[in-house]
Write a structure and sequence with these properties.
The chain has 110 residues and is mostly beta strands. The protein is built from no helices and eleven strands. 31% of the residues are buried.
Length: 110
């Protein structure tokens, strides 16, 4: 299993970023995929899940601002993040079960 995140960066409050996660080594189209994050000095926090049938779930902190999606043809899951806040600053991980990628840093600051 391999998960490779990309798309992180530095953005001002109110800005947007789109994270991508390219997956390989398992049957992506049949798998639930997750996004989680870890802020400096804090534990891992679940952000969002998309099931194989397209059903989406969000943490309260993400609901209304973040959108998870998937492209089964590309074995890729996305996280569109809008109206970003400084408290969204974290390393964002794509996860398949207990397996995570290396993460991508998101920094929200003025």
């Amino acid at each position: 299993v391999r998960l490779v995140e990309s798309g992180g960066g530095f953005v001002q409050p109110g800005g947007s970023l789109r994270l991508s996660c390219a997956a390989s080594g398992f049957t992506f189209s049949r798998s639930a995929m997750n996004w989680a994050r870890q802020a400096p000095g804090k534990g891992l926090e679940w952000v969002s899940t998309i099931l194989s049938d397209g059903t989406k779930h969000y943490a309260a902190s993400a609901k209304g601002r973040f959108t998870i999606s998937r492209d089964n043809a590309k074995n890729t899951v996305y996280l569109q993040m809008n109206r970003l806040k400084p408290e969204d600053t974290a390393i964002y991980y794509c996860a398949f079960g207990q397996i995570r990628g290396q993460g991508t840093q998101v920094t929200v600051s003025s």
